[in-house]
Amino acid sequence: MDGTVLVEGSNTKVAFLVYNIISNMAKELDEKLEKMSDKERELWALRHSAEHILHTAMQNLYPKLKKAMGPATPDGFYHDFDLDQKITEEDFPKIEKEMKRLIDADLPIVQEYITPEKAREIFKNNTYKLEWIDEIKKRDEKVSIYKLGKEDLDLCSGPHVASTGKVKAFKLLSIAGAYWHGDEKNKMLNRIYGTAFPTQKELDDYLNQTKEAKKRDHRKLGKELDLFTFSNLVGAGLPLYTPKGALLRRLVNGHVESIQSKQGYSQVWTPQIAKAELFKTSGHYDKYKDSMFKVISNYSDEEFFLKPMNCPQHTQIYASKPRSYKDLPIRLTDFAMLYRDEKPGELSGLARVRSFSQDDCHIFCTEEQVDNEVDKALAMTKEIMAVYGFKYKYRLSTRDLNHPEKYIGDPKTWERIEKWAEKIMIRNKIGHFDGPGEATFYAPKMDLIAQDSLGREWQLSTVQIDFFLPERFKLTYIDKDGKEKRPVMIHRAIIGSPERFLMILIEHFSGNFPTWLTPVQVKVLPITDRNLDYAKTIASKLERENIRVEVDDRNETLQAKIRDAQLEKVAYMLIVGDREEKEGTVSKRGRSGKDYGAQPIDKFTENIKEEIDKKIIN
Ligand SMILES: [Zn+2]
Ligand SMILES: [Zn+2]
User: Fold this and answer.
1) Which of 12, 84, 462, 534 is the most buried (most CB within 10 A)?
2) Under DSSP, is residue 551 helix (H, G, I), strand (E, B) or coil?
3) What is the predicted pLDDT for the residue at 89?
4) How far apart are alpha carbons 76 and 55 in whole angstroms?
C-alpha cells in the first residue's frame, strides 16, 4: 500500500500551495489555482494581498530595503527582505500599524502588463527582481505587475483581492533567516511570516489552535512522557521506542489485529530487503527509486533495496502456489518495518521518518468479491476510528488527467475503477470529496481524512482497488469454468502507519490517552512510609487484574507525588493513608485533579476494568 504516509500535516487540501512565486512563470501555480475551490482561491488571494501589504509597509518603514520574494502558504504568507538593519519581532507592532494604515486607506490593487524593458528600468536597483525579469524575458512573456494604490508596485502574477480594505484580519507571526534560492552561498535574507483570514474570529481561532498545538507538540510530549527518542548514532528519522512508547505501538497494532483476525485476515511476515527486480516488476523502482535505501551485498552483485512497502512481497506469497476460486479471498496483513530515504531537512519527529510500519493488508479476490471486501474494510475502519473519537471524511483520490504518464495500466480500466469506488462510497453512505491527482500510480484510492481534537486534518486509512499489480506479477487463479483468471488486489490500511498514528494520538489527546492506552494506568501514592505495605497490597491486587500499576515509594510529600503523577499523565492516582488503610479503601483522583473521594478497592477495580474493556475516552 502506498500513499498514506507521505502526506503530512494539517490543511491537506491547501498543502500544495507552497510554490515558487516567479512572477508570470508560475504556470504550475495556475494549474494549482485551477484545482482549488472558489473558497480556497479567495483565501489564497486574500493572503497574497496581505503579503503585498506587508512588503509595502516594510518599504515605507525601511526605504533602503530590497524586496526579494514572498508567496501565500498553506498557513498564511511570508516575504523575504534584503535589509542591512536588524529587525526582530519587537518591530512587529510598528509594522502591523503601518499595514493597518494601508488597509484603512482601502487602496485599489490593480494589475498591469508591461514590457520586460520597462520592468528592468523600474527595478534597476533590485537584483532579485532583475533575475525574475530575465527569466520572464527568456520565455518571451509579458511582465505582470500589481500596483497597490500609488504606494507600491511589484512583479506578480496575482490573483489578489480588489483593494487593501478587503483584508480584515491579519497578524505577523515570526521572523527567520532565509537564503535566496535556499542556497547558503547567497546572502541571508529576513523572512517575515504572517497570516490572514476573512474574519477576526477565524484568525483568533487559528491563533488559539497554534498555541494549543505548540503545547501538545508530540516531540515535546513524547520526551516528557518518555515514549520515544532519537540518537545521532542511530541516525536522523530513525525513532527508538522506549518501553512506554513500544507498549503504545503494541496496543494500537494489537487492537487493529484483534479486529482483523475476526474478519479472516491472516498475518504474514516478510523480509526487510528485496531484490531490485521485485520493485522493477511492480513499478516501484521507476517511481520511488530515489526514496529507496540501497543495500549492498559483500558476496554478489545483486542489487537490493530496503523495502518501502509490502505490496510486491505479498504478491509473491500469493504466487507461491496454484490458487483456485475456492481459496479466494486471501487476506494478508503485515506489520513489518518499512524504510524510505527522506530528505534529511524534511525529517520531523514522528511526522516524517525514515523507518516506520503500516497496518497493511492485501486482499486477493475475484472481481465479484470486491464490493463485499471493500464494504468490510470500510466498516472495520469506522469501528476503529470511533474508538479514538476521530471525525472524518473520505477523499476519492483519482488520476491527474493532465499527466497520464504518471500511471500504469490502461485509462479505460482506470475510469471503470474510479467510478466503481465512487459507487461504493455512495452505497456505504460515506460523505466524500474529490481528490483529482491524488491516486497512486497503480490505483485510485478511497482515503480517510481524520480530524483531530484541534480540527487539524490527517490522512489515515486508505482502500485501493488494484487491477494492475496482479497483471504485472501475472497472478492467476483457476475459476469455476477451469479457466485461468487474474485476481483483483485490494490494498488497505486502517490507521496507516502506527508510528505516525502515535504522533497524531499524542497531539489529539494531548498526552491524556484513554485508560486502555495509558502506559501507567494507576499510580498508588502512600501518604507516609507507614502506608507503604498497604500501597503494595493494592498494587498487587490491580496487577492480578492486568492493570498497569506503579507505587510511588519515594520519600516525597504527597503534593510532590501528585504533581509528578499528573505530569506523567497516569490515568488514576490512588492515595492511601491511615484512614484508607483502616477502612480498606483508596482515595481516587483523576489526572486532571478531579477528586472522586474514597472507595473500596474492588469498586475501583471494577470501574477501571470496564473503562479499559470498552476503550472509553475519559
Ligand atoms: Zn499495497
Ligand atoms: Zn504578489
Assistant:
1) 462
2) strand
3) 94
4) 14
Q: Which residues carry out catalysis? A: 311, 340, 358, 360, 362, 445, 491
Give the helix ranges, DSSP H, for 153-283: 200-216, 218-224, 243-262, 276-282
Distance 569 CA to ligand 1 centre (A): 37
Rounded Cα gap, residues 56 and 309, in angstroms: 49
Per the DSSP assignment, residues forming a β-bridge with 172 are 194
Q: List strand residue ranges (DSSP E) for 486-582, in order.
A: 488-493, 522-526, 549-551, 572-576
Residue partners of 557: CB distance under 8 A and separation at least 6 = none
Long-range contacts of 142-145 (CB under 8 A, 24+ apart): 142/24, 142/113, 142/114, 142/115, 142/116, 143/23, 143/24, 143/113, 143/114, 143/115, 143/116, 143/118, 143/119, 144/23, 144/24, 144/111, 144/112, 144/113, 145/111, 145/112, 145/113, 145/114, 145/119
Measured from the alpha carbon of residue 47, the closest ligand is 2
b/e map 433-459, b = 16+ CB within 10 Å:
eebebbbbbbbbbbbbbbebeeebbbb
356 alpha carbon to ligand 1 midpoint, in Å? 15
Distances (CA, A) of 319 to 21, 324, 427, 473: 50, 12, 33, 8
Ligand closest to Cα of 465 equals 1
Distance from Cα 70 to the centre of ligand 2, integer Å: 7
Residue 307 Cα, ligand 1 centroid: separation in angstroms? 12
CB atoms < 10 A from the CB of 333, how many? Answer: 22
On whether the CB atoms of residues 5 and 358 are closer than 8 A, the answer is: yes
| Residue 592 to residue 601: CA distance in whole angstroms | 21
Q: Please name which ligand lies nearest the alpha carbon of 313.
A: 1
Which tens digit of pLDDT belongs to each residue from 565-590? Answer: 999 999 999 999 999 999 999 999 99
> What is the pTM (predicted TM-score) of this model?
0.79
Q: Which grid coordinates are listed for 499?
A: 508510528
Q: Are 424 and 371 in contact (CB under 8 A)?
A: yes
Which neighbouring-strand residues pair with 468? none
What is d(CA 56, CA 148) in angstroms, rounded to the nearest whole number? Answer: 8
359 neighbors 496 (Cβ within 8 angstroms): yes
CB 476 within 8 A of CB 486: yes
**Ligand 2 centre and the CA of 91: distance in Å?**
23
d(CA 147, CA 156): 9
Q: Which pLDDT belongs to residue 27?
A: 59
Q: What are the cell numbers at 94?
A: 510598528
What is the Cα–Cα distance from 358 to 360, expressed in whole angstroms? Answer: 5
Mean pLDDT for 428-448 is 90
| Measured distance CA(344)–CA(196) in Å, rounded | 31
Please give the pLDDT value at position 18. 28
Span 176-227, pLDDT tens digits: 888 888 777 888 899 999 999 999 999 999 999 888 888 899 999 999 999 9
Distance 55 CA to ligand 2 centre (A): 10
Question: Over 50: is that where the pLDDT of 29 sits?
Answer: yes
Residue-wise pLDDT for 45-62, tens only, equals 999 999 999 999 999 999
The closest alpha carbon to 403, from 141, 35, 38, 71, belongs to: 35
Transcribe 252-283 into DSSP letters. Answer: HHHHHHHHHHHTT-EE----SEEEHHHHHHHS
